[in-house]
Amino acid sequence: MSTPRHDGIFFNISLAELLRQRKAALKHNSARLPALSLEARKANKSALEKTQSSLLGSQAILFKSRWKWGVLYSLATVVGLFAISGFPGVLSTESATLFLLQRIIPAPIISLLIATGMYILNDLIDADLDRANGKKRPIPSGKVSKQQAWTFVLTTNGIAVILAAATFNVATMLLIVPMLLIGILYSAPRVKLMNRFVVKTLAIASFYVLCAVLGMTSIYGMDQVVANPAPALHAMMLLGIMIFISSTLNDLGDVAGDKAAGRRTIPIVMGGVDTIRLLIALAAAMIALSWMVYGLVNAAVIISSSVFFAFVISRLQQIKQSLKSIDAELARAQHRKIFPLHMVLQAILCAGAFLTPI
User: Fold this and answer.
1) How far is it, in rounded angstroms, from Cα 119 to Cα 156?
2) What is the pLDDT of residues 189-217, one digit of tens each?
3) CA 215, CA 208: separation in Å to the nearest integer?
4) Fewer beta carbons below 10 Å: N end or C end of the chain?
5) Is 54 buried (19+), middle (13-18) or exposed (0-12) by CB count in 10 A?
6) What is the C-alpha to C-alpha distance for residues 99 and 82, in angstroms, rounded to an integer?
């Protein structure tokens, strides 16, 4: 009697065992995938944290990234102190020390802190867009975490509010309210003044002007400003228009990224050539304004401000001629070259106050 063959049975059993083992292996590997993915995420997070600075170091990095503009707004407050010709007379009184300690000294620091804090708030909201625009700022580059940036914003603005309260000057305490509101609404997701045509640049100019008014009212009070409005208004207009010009030039370098983000900046809506024409017209209007305000009373202010804005117009003409070949980086370079002119204008306005007859 022959022995039955079991080859087919053995083959079926082996195939079934192989399939079972393969299924178990796939199940084991699939179970490990989330864990491996989690480990990879932890590794990436750990690597990022190593590149980020400590809390104190991060605050220094953030301040360093925006200190230049903070100082510019602070100096606008200093210009406000000198905008009215009675400033030297106020310092010669017996209460000069009190004014210096309680009102004059905190004012520029308040502007510096609020302006720097609001710039960082904008960088925080705009981190992804800044990365798309090729800007290597601390937040989009990963040098500073968003939590550290929020700490900076809250700290700078909190200290500014405390300093304003310490002046015991009602005008100072009232003025920081619109300054804070402009800074917040400029970047606030549901409002985003920075996305709105003209409003974006007007918000920046208004904040700059408020910094100057903060200086004016910190020592004189509103009564003195109202009693002698011409020099104050002249300084406010020139400062506001100059920052308007500078901010619009900066937008020329961000057209691609701003357009992708759905923003309606002046260069996007009007185009490059018409934007420069608008800025030239504004600069020319400032020359006319200087003559209207001072006439022949203060020839030094008229001549210096006229020469200043004539130079600004010449620079704008140069930018207009090279506009077809200008790229984002070159536009930003032009904006950086304009920055020192803010300081020159501030010096002109300060010197003009001393030369104006009381």
Assistant:
1) 11
2) 889 999 999 999 999 999 999 999 999 88
3) 11
4) N
5) exposed
6) 14
The domain ranges of the chain are: 53-355
Of 267-271, 296-300, 353-357, which has the strongest mean pLDDT? 267-271
The stretches of the chain forming alpha helices (DSSP H) are: 7-51, 55-82, 87-91, 96-99, 106-125, 127-132, 138-141, 146-166, 170-187, 199-219, 221-227, 229-252, 255-260, 266-270, 272-294, 299-321, 328-355
Q: What is the pLDDT of residues 86-102, one digit of tens each?
A: 555 555 555 566 666 67
Tell whether the torsion through CA atoms of 190, 195, 199 and 201 is positive or negative: positive
Q: How much is the pTM?
A: 0.80
Residue 144 has what pLDDT? Answer: 93
End-to-end CA distance of the chain: 136
Q: Residue 346: name the closest of 158, 65, 83, 15 by CA.
A: 83
Amino acid, res. 55: L
Q: What CATH number does domain 53-355 carry, 1.10.3470, 1.10.10, 2.40.128, 1.10.600?
A: 1.10.600
Q: What is the pLDDT of residues 112-163, one digit of tens each?
A: 999 999 999 999 998 887 777 677 889 988 899 999 999 999 999 999 999 9
